[in-house]
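Checklist before submission:
- one chain only
- standard amino acids only
- sequence pasted in full

Submission:
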Amino acid sequence: MTTDVLWRGPEGAPTLVLAHGAGGAMDSGWMNAFADGIAGHGIRTARFEFAYMAARRSGDRRPPPRAELVLHEYRAAVADIVAVAGAPVVIGGKSMGGRVASMVVDDTDAATGLVCLGYPFHPIGDQAKVRTAHLEHLATPALICQGTRDPFGSRQDVGGYALADGIRVLWLEDGDHDLTPRARLSGFSRSEHLATAIRAVAEFVTARAG
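Returned file contents:
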């Protein structure tokens, strides 16, 4: 496999591999803002797209497949990226991308950390269908940045889950799935929450892949 990779940040810097969410491309506004922000902290990002999303650029509007069906794509992308950037790297992604990364990180030798930006702990409106079984025994250190009112896993929901000791959850007050708060109710802005997440991720990646 030869992966099309969107690089951002200084060459030779600690590298964070990022996959997109189910509905947003690797160069969505949110992904661009995150990559631009973390580059300012000396972190290099390597973004790639799963095949279904890449096909949408040619007009093929196929739906996202189940996460289990793209694990091999993530592994192949990491191998291609490591061939350029070297190892170790931290891997992760936005929403579905982070979930897929979490499913392969423990058996990916080059990966020394995991970053999930809005983890989909359960489908919207179906809190009983949790996606945490593998997270209970995750061996790789992980950072999850999550809004407290994320419909895919609020603070109240996640507080009842058994997660591995090496998983840290950074809670962004009143943030939704994009970490965006309601400014009048929370006193925070989207840019403030994004900056907070970026700083935390930069520190984590530097410690794990620096």
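Reviewer check: Helices lie at 29-39, 51-56, 71-85, 96-104, 155-158, 183-186, 190-209.
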